[in-house]
């Protein structure tokens, strides 16, 4: 009888993708979506992005979308396919990067090149609305130049800001999860995690190659309207368990420091990535009907 009940509870957790997850050591909350495999995650992520994009375009005629590097860029492929592709007003999109490596934009290590090959070359976003981080072979100059560019786009009202805080408010930031808990190019136990004023920082000694990088700062990420983490595959299982279920020492897990100030933090993960989570302890998770995945995306006017 007891076993049957447990099986039933498990089933409820496994098959419902919507849970309101509360971080272990504070009031900050995130919505957690769990799916069977990468295909399902990619399709749900595409629908989520469509919904956020259409809403932003309806409200202010633009959508500001911030990309990461890493394996998750491939998960954007459903945006460039079928009815989803046709439901997006691509000419209203502005694309940014949360981090970049100091290599030429056509180099194999470039996050811009990865995004171009996997996604941007398949969708009609006007070239001048793709705001790559130009690197000049010097991470300090590049970080400074990108922050100036973002500030100029705030003045031109392409990017909004929060009135009380002086940080850009991007509509959507997409983040990958590093095996050591890093996010963007913000690595564990580094002074860059404590930055409070700057929007973009140079990184000179990244433990993940290449060592020279440029990254948005935590307050810049946390000021966004929607931040989505994507964790795929069993290689992310242990770090996902640490980030979601174990309070960490300050600075030791940058991903745990992503706490969206006044917006939505959402996790998308597959079975492999969630295999070390103790979902049976998530019984307090409430159903959170943030949006209905089954609704067809509407074309915005
Ligand atoms: O430029 C980068 O290196 C990234 O922006 C970085 O933060 C990445 O998203 C994670 O390291 C996850 O990468 P994988 O998904 O490839 O493990």
UniProtKB/TrEMBL annotation:
GO terms, biological process: carbohydrate metabolic process; pentose-phosphate shunt, oxidative branch
Pfam family, one: Glucosamine_iso
Region (Disordered): 1-25
Signal peptide start-end: none
Pathway: Carbohydrate degradation; pentose phosphate pathway; D-ribulose 5-phosphate from D-glucose 6-phosphate (oxidative stage): step 2/3
UniProt EC number: 3.1.1.31
Keyword tags: Hydrolase
Residue ranges, compositional bias (Basic and acidic residues): 1-17
Gene Ontology terms, MF aspect: 6-phosphogluconolactonase activity
Gene Ontology CC annotations of this record: cytosol
Domain Glucosamine/galactosamine-6-phosphate isomerase positions: 37-267
Enzymatic reactions: 6-phospho-D-glucono-1,5-lactone + H2O = 6-phospho-D-gluconate + H(+)
Top EC class for this record: hydrolase
Family: Belongs to the glucosamine/galactosamine-6-phosphate isomerase family. 6-phosphogluconolactonase subfamily.
Protein name (Swiss-Prot/TrEMBL): Probable 6-phosphogluconolactonase
């Amino acid at each position: 009888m007891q076993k049957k009940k447990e099986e039933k509870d498990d089933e409820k957790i496994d098959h419902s993708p919507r849970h309101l997850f509360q971080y272990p050591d504070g009031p900050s909350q995130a919505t957690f979506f769990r799916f069977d495999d990468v295909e399902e995650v990619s399709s749900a992520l595409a629908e989520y992005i469509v919904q956020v994009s259409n809403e932003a375009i309806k409200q202010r005629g633009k959508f500001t979308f911030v990309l990461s590097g890493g394996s998750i860029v491939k998960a954007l492929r459903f945006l460039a396919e079928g009815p989803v592709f046709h439901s997006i007003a691509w000419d209203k999109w502005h694309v940014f990067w949360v981090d970049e490596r100091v290599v030429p934009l056509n180099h194999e290590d470039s996050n811009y090149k990865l995004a171009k090959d996997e996604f941007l070359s398949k969708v009609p976003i006007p070239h001048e609305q793709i705001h790559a981080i130009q690197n000049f072979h010097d991470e300090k100059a590049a970080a400074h130049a990108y922050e100036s560019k973002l500030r100029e786009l705030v003045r031109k009202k392409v990017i909004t800001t929060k009135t009380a805080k002086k940080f850009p408010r991007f509509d959507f930031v997409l983040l990958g999860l590093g095996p050591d808990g890093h996010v963007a190019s913000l690595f564990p136990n580094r002074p860059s995690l404590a930055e409070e004023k700057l929007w973009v920082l140079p990184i000179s000694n990244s433990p993940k190659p290449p060592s020279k990088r440029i990254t948005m700062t935590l307050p810049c990420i946390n000021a966004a309207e929607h931040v989505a983490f994507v964790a795929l595959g069993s290689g992310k299982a242990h770090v996902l368990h640490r980030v979601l279920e174990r309070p960490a020492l300050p600075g030791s897990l940058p991903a745990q420091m992503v706490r969206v100030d006044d917006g939505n933090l959402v996790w998308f993960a597959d079975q492999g990535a969630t295999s070390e989570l103790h979902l049976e302890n998530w019984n307090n998770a409430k159903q959170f009907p943030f949006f209905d995945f089954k609704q067809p995306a509407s074309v915005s006017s």
